[in-house]
Amino acid sequence: MVNARARTGAKAYVRAVENLRSLGMPLHSTFPLHDPARLPETVNSAVDAGHDLIILGGGDGSVSSVVDVLAHRGVPLGLLPLGTANDFARTLHIPTDLDHACRTIAHGKVVDIDLGLCGNNYYVNRASVGLGAGVAEAMSPTLKRWTGVLAYPVATVKALLRHRPFSAHLTFPDGDHEPQEHHGLLQLSIANGRYFGGGQLAAHDAGIDDATLDISVMRHGSLHDLIVAARDLKRGALDSEHVRHFRTKRVDVSTGPDLPINVDGELVDSTPQRFSVARNALHVVVPRTWKDASNPDF
Predict the structure, then answer these.
(1) What angle do helix axes 131-138 and 151-162 make, rounded to 10 degrees?
(2) Which of 18, 41, 181, 266 is catalytic?
(3) Which of 108, 199, 269, 291 is most deeply packed, by most CB within 10 A?
(4) Is Kinase tagged as a keyword (predicted)?
């Protein structure tokens, strides 16, 4: 299934089908979908029909739209990264080159990875409050199509101009941290994957199969402060003057005022909300060289 409205989807569809068949993949059905809203129902129908592998061509938004359908269903996902950021593919070392991605599906291995939960909504990369939600509001399909990888910086500038600092209260149901109160915030992120936002690191040792969430709290500040904080996030240098980091399995978040939550690029909920880990919830095809944190020798 290829999201034909993904940045390179329409051109990639025919080539992907030809490549996969030439690699010996017995494709039962192929779908060039021009309406991304049909992806979840199409994937659900394929799973119900008994197919043993779902191959999805699209970006992070396409992946996130189908994980609610695939979570705990036992059917592996093969990914052809065709989006703008492709952070999920970057986390799993899946090549963005179409030919190499096809070879990964044909010759790779299946591993179990975690999903994040925002209430009852699954996500693969990150949920965020504050600037991240503002970026999601500013990130239109037209902007992504015309600016490509520059869409994130452009949308971020737009979001910064509109942003108002907020407060957040964090409590940890498992008692692994004391309650946290933070004021004057730019952003609060709860990451499941290693990368988000076009290559930012959740933490230098973050993993998508480590049974934990990486939380980063970023204070609002001057333009210089924001540039320094963005540099710190890009290289995973957390617990700096501008960014605080916590690692946990569950966290309850409330904000003042209540704010929308960006879940993998879509505004799907609002605070207050609980975030948690769904352990080994998704099967996915990765390169054979990818190291499984729960079984590093596999």
Answers:
(1) 120
(2) 266
(3) 108
(4) yes
